[in-house]
Amino acid sequence: MNIILVKPRGFCAGVIRAINIVNRILSIYKLPIYMNHELVHNNYVVNFLKKNGVIISENINNIPKGSVLVISAHGASKNIINDAYKRNLIVFDATCPLVKKVHYQASYANKNNIDTIIIGNPRHQEVLGTIGQYNNAIPYVVESLHDANRIKVKNSNKLCFLTQTTLSIFNTYKIINVLKSRFPNILELGKNNICYATDNRQQAVYKLARITDLVIIFGSNISSNANKLLEIAKKYSKAYMIDNFSYFKKQWLNNINTIGVTSSASTPELLVRQFIRYIRQYSNITVKEITISKETLSFKLPKLLKI
Length: 307
Ligand code: SF4
Known about the structure:
By secondary structure, the chain is of the alpha/beta class. The chain has helices at residues 13-28, 43-51, 78-86, 97-111, 125-131, 145-150, 169-182, 196-211, 224-236, 269-282; strands spanning 2-7, 33-35, 54-56, 68-71, 90-93, 115-119, 139-142, 159-163, 214-218, 238-242, 258-263, 286-291.
């Protein structure tokens, strides 16, 4: 049996930065430290951080005054940040700079009274954080083509759209086209907000799914970008998303010659390696890696945490 690992997979620059921020804080400050939400949407990472003294408290008012608070990679609303400062928390912002870019666009729209259609999942932490940049203009949210075809806005002449960073590139362009045809004056403020890591992993899984009989995606079901990888892979191959090798079912291998493997932007590479070791125990495998695109982007740590 052949296993094809596709690159790029796994940690993106935003997740690496967020984890480095927390590791630095854990080495400097007294435990526990607090987070407003899971740092990234991966169960392995979250459980690891909890074991190492991180407490997740979505309600800032429950965090003891003077504690250290890390804002998750998905970002937070202005109210959460303000509440944190009011409680004298020591705030470190692990929001991915690419999500921050969306916040700046939202703040610009809000300041200039431009109502905004945010394309994304209204229950996702990133979208909640983006909505939380508004106190003036109206933030609407559309999640699907169905929503895009039905949304009613107050003023279509002062309107823009933004997107969540981890959407499906394929579906989002269809939604944007519907919005542009329904609202010809809509401003394309956040046209390119789907991030490089989402884009690259989706292109890679698309190519992988077309040359394999089964695709295994390592990721957690709370992760938006992991779910989008699954959605794309399923269109072209048999595909499953699992947190780690213990969820893999041997019967998935029936009539399979080639397995494709990838992982979401918040999944540690360790979980892919564990899977390869596991499969090797009961099957003769050859492992090959293909590279669809190269990534070189990295983000700096906040000044206060630099060594
Ligand atoms: S998936 Fe994209 S937006 Fe999200 S943390 Fe990674 S680089 Fe940033």
